[in-house]
């Protein structure tokens, strides 16, 4: 859809994950949520129709709040897969029936308003570049999210190069995310020291391949960054994400607003 929306600074962002679907009203002037975020468990199995229904419930709840955007304002949605022109092209940690689903069309029809869909880590990276730990940094910034999988955003001079799937870099014969994601740490019962060893291997490889100016680490365990980031030996500075778990919601909303020209 190509309808233009009036300029407004409050936009709804929805972050679809493998275990939870979270939404919030984002103040785009500040890059912050207006009020609390709202979360519902991801239905299992996480098939498209069931997930779309939950996204509809979250938007409906947010629209009852003070500060809600106009009823026809666009909604930004993030999804944990490759998203090309609104279509999911992979499904590493969600139901396989998402592959080749037009997520944009599905949610536009469910919500009855414009929707902009993007990869979850790309959204987090965009938010960090605009409002957070990567603000004003020139050159290459890699934002890596450690969660169920490993997500990545490739930012150059503040602009996103979309769909870098650096969690699927092959390291020692396997996808890196199967060894170094937060869920791999839990699954294998690793101490922080043991987990740091796996992160060292992963980030050293990224550093060798991309020579970035900065690494930003997001995802739920960025709250525990003191337990592993200072122990990493890299030439590149590596710092925790500032927006933490809200980065996806904020970045998704920002992308929707820019796409539909609600903000510059
Ligand atoms: C997916 C990415 C996603 C990341 C974090 C990976 O398994 O391939 O698209 O960004 O998990 O959710």
Radius of gyration: 18 Å
The general outline is globular
CATH superfamily of the largest domain: ATPase, nucleotide binding domain
CATH topology of the largest domain: Nucleotidyltransferase, domain 5
* Structural domain count: 2
Per DSSP E runs of 2 or more residues, the count of β-strands stands at 14
Q: Roughly what fraction of the amino acids lie in strands?
A: 25-35%
Order of strands, main sheet, comes to: 3-2-1-4-7
Oligomer: single chain
What is the helix/strand order?
EEEHEEEHEHEEEEEHHHEEH
> Helices and strands: which structural class?
alpha/beta
Largest sheet: 5 strands, mixed
Our measurement of the CA-to-CA distance between the termini, rounded to an integer number of angstroms, reads: 19 Å
**What is the correct CATH architecture of the largest domain?**
2-Layer Sandwich
- Uncertain residue segments: 1-6
Descriptive report:
The chain is built from seven helices and 14 strands. The chain has helices at residues 48-63, 103-111, 120-131, 177-180, 182-187, 192-210, 247-259; strands at residues 10-16, 20-27, 32-41, 75-79, 83-84, 87-88, 115-119, 140-146, 150-156, 159-161, 170-171, 174-175, 214-218, 238-240. β11 (170-171) and β12 (174-175) form a beta hairpin. The longest helix has 19 residues, at 192-210. It binds beta-D-glucopyranose. Beta-D-glucopyranose binds next to α3. Beta-D-glucopyranose is lined by residues 80-82, 90, 92-93, 119-121, 145, 147, 149, 151, 165, 167-168, 177.
């Amino acid at each position: 859809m190509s309808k233009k929306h009036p300029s407004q600074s409050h936009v709804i962002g929805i972050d679809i994950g493998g275990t939870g679907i979270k939404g919030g009203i984002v103040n785009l002037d500040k890059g912050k949520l207006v009020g609390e975020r709202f979360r519902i468990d991801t239905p299992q199995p996480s098939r498209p129709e069931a997930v779309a229904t939950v996204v509809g419930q979250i938007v409906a709840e947010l629209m009852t709040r003070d500060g809600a955007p106009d009823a026809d304002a666009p909604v930004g949605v993030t999804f944990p897969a490759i998203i090309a022109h609104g279509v999911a092209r992979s499904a590493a940690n969600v139901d396989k029936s998402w592959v080749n689903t037009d997520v944009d069309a599905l949610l536009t029809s469910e919500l009855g308003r414009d929707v902009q869909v993007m990869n979850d880590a790309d959204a987090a990276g965009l938010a960090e570049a605009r409002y957070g730990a990567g603000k004003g940094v020139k050159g290459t910034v890699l934002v890596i999210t450690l969660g169920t999988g490993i997500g990545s955003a490739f930012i150059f001079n503040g602009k996103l190069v979309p769909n870098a799937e650096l969690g699927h870099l092959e390291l020692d014969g396997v996808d890196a995310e199967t060894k170094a994601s937060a869920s791999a740490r839990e699954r294998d019962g690793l101490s922080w020291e043991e987990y740091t060893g796996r992160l060292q291997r992963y980030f050293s490889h990224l550093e060798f391949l991309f020579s970035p100016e900065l690494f930003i680490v997001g995802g739920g365990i960025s709250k525990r960054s003191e337990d592993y980031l200072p122990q990493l030996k890299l030439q590149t500075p590596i710092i925790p994400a500032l927006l933490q778990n809200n980065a996806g919601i904020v970045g998704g909303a920002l992308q929707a607003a820019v796409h539909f020209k609600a903000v510059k």
